[in-house]
Specification:
The protein has a single domain, classed as MetI-like fold, CATH 1.10.3720. It is 72% helix and 0% strand. The C terminus is likely disordered. The protein is elongated, with a radius of gyration of 22 Å. By secondary structure, the chain is an all-alpha fold.
């Protein structure tokens, strides 16, 4: 694993890692970087253009929204929502999916049948419909949004990990561990899991970007975080009436969603190439 990381030579992967690190740093330092309070409203300052345009105000570099709130500050604080939701969704979905995939792949039998049935059901059920049901039942909040994303994101982890484990449990080193009397949990934790860790990391990088898009999509529909909390998806929704009069309102959050998702995908591709010896030796 360490050796593969040292061979992480993909230029696009490094670019993606740099961009993602920049977004994460902005999210971490949001209180220090934001020029003003993202919640402060001023009807007098509503819908101001950027400071470099006619009618702009020097204290609002990217202008203000329909309630007079500073756009730049809300964009900076919106990165926190994307990072929190992405990390929480990937952590929760990864933990659930990996555990189910490991158990189903290693033990097989009825457990494998039930888990495979659940995976197929999750794949066949439309994401938006399941998310709508969860949010409608539990209510729109950041916590319930994360629950909805976990419920719709665990299946890729479970399916791929299960397939890897089914192949690994027939390998000689696993058979040798069982032959010397190692308990199943020790075999899974000490021999099987380390050999699927690279695959899990690649899946997590892909699902992180997907979680950001889904959070923005649900917030755009009003099913994500409350409107008072700055989020890129919520900003897109609020900017719809002003798409032609003040296009920057909708351009900036959309661009940040695109760049953040692109950075995660580029990093994931580079990580896959570094961890897969067949791709690394091409």
């Amino acid at each position: 694993m360490l050796r593969a990381w040292k061979e992480f030579n993909s230029r696009s992967g490094r670019l993606g890692l740099a961009l993602f690190g920049l977004v994460a740093l902005v999210a971490l330092l949001a209180p220090l970087l934001a020029p003003s309070d993202p919640f402060q409203q001023s009807i007098v300052m509503r819908l101001k253009p950027p400071s470099w345009m006619a009618g702009g105000h020097e204290n609002h570099l990217l202008g203000t929204d329909q309630l007079g709130r500073d756009i730049l500050s809300r964009l900076i604080y919106g990165s926190r929502i994307s990072m929190i939701v992405g990390a929480a969704a990937v952590l929760g979905a990864g933990l659930l999916g990996v555990v189910l995939g490991l158990l189903a792949g290693y033990f097989g039998g009825r457990l494998d049948y039930v888990v495979s049935l659940l995976i197929n059901a999750a794949w066949s059920f439309p994401f938006i419909l399941l998310a709508l049901i969860i949010v409608a039942v539990l209510g729109a909040s950041l916590q319930n949004l994360i629950i909805a994303l976990i419920a719709t994101s665990w299946a890729p982890f479970a399916r791929i990990v299960r397939g890897e484990v089914v192949a690994l449990k027939e390998r000689e080193f696993v058979a040798a561990a069982r032959a010397v009397g190692s308990r199943p949990w020790r075999v899974i934790g000490g021999h099987v899991l380390p050999n699927v860790a690279s695959t899990i990391l690649v899946i997590a990088s892909i699902e992180f970007g997907r979680a950001i898009i889904r959070e923005s999509f649900l917030s755009f529909l009003g099913l994500g975080v409350p409107p008072s909390i700055p989020s890129w998806g919520g900003m897109l929704s609020e900017a719809r009436p002003y798409i032609f009069t003040l296009p920057l309102l909708i351009t900036m959050p959309g661009l940040l969603i695109f760049l953040t998702t692109l950075s995660v995908n580029l990093f994931g591709d580079g990580l896959r190439d570094a961890l897969d010896p067949r791709l690394r030796n091409r």
